[in-house]
Amino acid sequence: MSILEAxxxxxxxxxxxxxxxxxxxxxxxxxxxGLVGEAAGGLVTEDPSKFGQCxxxxxxxxxxxxxxxxxxxxxxxxxxxxxxxxPDTARGLLYLAGSLPIAFVGLFSGVAQGKAAAAGVGLxxxxxxxxxxxxxxxxxxxxxxxxxxxxxxxxxxNV
Length: 159
Known about the structure:
Layout (H helix, E strand, L loop, with lengths): L2 H5 L2 H37 L4 H9 L3 H16 L10 H38 L4 H27 L2
């Protein structure tokens, strides 16, 4: 089997899509969670009682990685990778295409949500009673990650 044949194999393309969903969305979540962790570390140094509020904000950007993993799991089930017949090249390409919404939106929205949540840490540093507003600001970014997840799942389930 040549390299070209291997790369045009339906199962390889489906696995590539699953890997991209996990990899890119996970990178976005890791960066976002890290950004909030940096901001939270400074605040908790000054006021350890705000740890719980900071932890809540830090958890928010982690969801994109979960969405990528969920999409990868659905791709692997649909493509027969976890048992069943391997997809042909055309179906493999469709699974790969189906992974792209959550892969790329997860990458960028994870970072954007991390920035919004880090700003929320600044908000609760001065006005801890405004935690709900900080959560809403960060959760607005989540809307687009959820839309991308739905798009990816609908595409993959209808291949």
